[in-house]
Structures
1.
Amino acid sequence: MLSNLQFISQEGSIKTHTITSKKSRITFGHYLSFLFFVVDLFLLNASYLLVIYTKPDNIITVSTKNLLFALTYNLIWIALTFLLKRYAIGRNIKLINVFIKSIKITVIHFLIISSLIQFSGYFRLNDYYIFINYILLITIAPTSRILLLYALKQYRKHGYNYKKVVMVGSGDKVTQMQSFIKKNPDLGFKFCGFFSNQVHLGEHYKGNINTLYSYCLRNEINEIFYVLSPAETNKINEIMNFADNNLIRLRLIPDFGVAINRKLEIGFYDEIPVLTPRHEPLEIQTNRIIKRTFDIMFSLFVILFVFPFVFPLLGVMVRLSSKGPIFFRQLRSGKNNKCFYCYKFRTMVVNDSSDKLQAVKNDMRVTRLGKFLRKSNLDELPQFFNVLKGDMSVVGPRPHMIFHTEQYSKIINRYMVRHLVKPGITGWAQVNGYRGNTNETRLMEKRIEHDMWYLENWNLWLDIKIVLMTTLNVFRGEKNAY
């Protein structure tokens, strides 16, 4: 699907580009953290069972005490790995750092479990076998991690799981970065060229900065490395806005004489500092696993324990309220601006304008039952099936109609940033009052502002807080829901 996106040029004029949604590459690297998580749990339990099984009595009994210990044993490991960010793996990670972190987590786990056995008085396990278990674990856990990482690096070295990158700027930093990418093919970067307002010769020079935008769109560039030059500071915000509006990651290679009024994250490629102008917790695979696990568990709970009582009643009431289907299905904008069908209980009489016109106060299309469903958020319940399917999350920016995505992406800067994450049944903007009709550009801008804040500040507790605030609003109703 085509959508018109904009960014502001240095002269203040608006440039519009037509882009197509990028095809997602399903690669081993995207699932690496999850694979490590599964392998860790397997090795953790396999080593323990192997040691126990080789005991002279060779008997493994299933009891409440043993099951409780196994659960505690696993939960402590999971808590440590998340706390110490064991699965936060970047492309430039060093194998020695992986080894050291793996040893550290195993030693801490050993100390906690040993203390628990010694001082709890509940678990009675032979110290010798516990010690042998950890000797085995401290050998195989780091080794398996390094082997998997090495396999991934070889996979990338042979031209798979790559990201297309371009560079903007000139001088030593550009030359250094090009050389670093060339010398490290195992990082999985495909260097496509560089852009500079200073004319250069050579095959890698693609033109001045004004030609960058069309090149990135034509060639589906994944990342832009920008060398911050004091002479070209007037281009920084323009390129930031372009990257935001077109779902391209921007990495800044800084000249620290340049000031930018945004939160920046810094990483290192060899000795080269690289800044990212937005903190995105959900760019880390571990956090996506946590969020998806919460989505599945919460959705299953609602579907299994709430739906059997609520669904039949609401379904009959919707059917009796007016002619038409029980459910309303509509195309909405999802993650990476991919369309999906969003489901709701029907709250309006059947009409031809539902794909373009938002509900307004005292809207004649909304049924009497529909007013109650909208005010209490109960019309959104069928979207838990969207969550289970993977199109949505329990918490995230609300999915907009395709028409509104195309409309507001033209007039609100960085509007498309909200599509870097899955849309949600509820969201930070909604619990702060920015829901319902947003025909005023100012209201939509506030909604986008809250969506971006959520994107940059996500954590599991924030999701739980938003769910609790939404639940409270179900009982007290919301004045902007109509």
2.
Amino acid sequence: MSLTTILVTLAAVAWLAQIVLGGWQIHRFNRAFDALCLRGTAVGVGRSAGRFKARVVLAIAFDQEGRVCDGFVLRGLTVFARPRPLTKLYGLLKSELIPDVLFPKDRACQTALLLAIKPKT
């Protein structure tokens, strides 16, 4: 077996592993999102941008009174990032969700929250 064959094989295995692990992450996100949709009457989702820094996907569910009843944040650079509960927002009204105040040192979470609460047009 030549060196070229070994390198091509390793690249193909890494590519397949990325596909499988990416699908696994999407499956976990979809399960968490489905559970979130069942909890609230309205759901907002926002994500931060970035190529070489950790991305953040934030989803929050609102009850009939406009209070946050559930939410999660998915943050990370790799496919091993998983949804984590966002308990510090529970019970807050939509008008009380001020990104700069809730996440003073986390620009990615600020952006994701701002997009999650932005009115849809």
3.
Amino acid sequence: MTPAFDSPSRPTVLLDPQAITIRRDRHRGVKVRLHDGTTAYRVRLVEAFPVTRRRRFIILCDRDGQEIGILEDPKLLDPESAEVVRTALDRSYFLSRVTAIHRIEERYGTATWHVTTDRGPRVFEVRSRSESVWWLGASRILIKDAHGNRYEIPNLDTLDPRSRTLAELHI
């Protein structure tokens, strides 16, 4: 482990993927064994750049929320550790892709979306467009619902005309 930069409080540490192991503990939580032999339990994995650099620069935090370090590329871990990281991130960053929009109902500033996703039909609420809808390019849209779930429209132009019109009216 080498410090990425000096900080008056606690330096950020880049973790050597060859010197750590990441496993599931008996309670299905994530545990990390560091090169010095210490083990951290109930570790939380956070993508530093979940939209622009998915699966790169993973921040590992202990059960108290203190940063353990940053893993630059989980693909360099041993296969079992890499799988634990992938599964944990998939669970944390659940993302459905919207394939059709059936209707959007607005009431008192809240929009209720009735959609079909790559995981089946969904109904979700968006409370604030300005804080919950982001354009990620010319036609890619990310939507965060009232419960923190994320939905992506990978390409607005590929939706059917009715879905595209509904999206454009409510985004």
